[in-house]
Design a protein that fits this description.
Immunoglobulin-like; 151 residues; mainly beta; flat; 4-stranded antiparallel sheet
Length: 151
């Protein structure tokens, strides 16, 4: 008997097994666990900006610390419900604590860090040191650059 290999079926089987593992690990009774909020990081000439999705949290539940060029963001999303836990048919949102840690370049000014929280998005702006920011040199059209001649 010849058995043909079907890569599509192999991928589908793997997908089903991974889903079963994830569903088995997810708390179904409202118990706390850990979660990892997604983050976007981008840079412009003045700063590095991090945006973390942490909906359903209060600003007081978020702790941001900077030490030795390492930024740590930690928090806890609490399972708060007026319903009895046995009344839930499904709980898919993640609750519990999280910790995200970012190693920052030495171009960041540790004294100029700002954080804001709007509509479930935590925005952290890390200003760059003045010497790390680009400088524009103005060109004077009526003058020549002076040369230094060493004897």
């Amino acid at each position: 008997m010849i058995t043909t290999w079907n890569p599509i079926r192999e991928i589908a089987d793997l997908h089903e097994r991974l889903n079963a593992m994830v569903e088995g690990a997810a708390p179904t009774d409202g118990a706390t666990s850990s979660f990892v909020p997604p983050v976007d990081v981008y840079e412009d000439e003045n700063a590095i900006v991090l945006k973390l999705e942490v909906p359903g949290m209060k600003a007081d539940d978020i702790d941001i610390r900077m030490e030795n060029n390492k930024l740590q963001v930690r928090g806890e999303r609490k399972f708060e419900s007026e319903q009895k836990q046995e009344n839930f048919l499904r709980v898919e949102r993640r609750y519990g604590t999280f910790l995200r840690s970012f190693t920052l370049p030495s171009t960041i000014d540790g004294e100029k860090i700002e954080a804001g929280y709007v509509d479930g998005v935590l925005t952290i702006t890390l200003a760059k040191r003045p010497e790390a920011q680009p400088k524009q040199i103005k060109v004077n059209a009526n003058a020549r650059a002076q040369k230094t001649i060493e004897a």
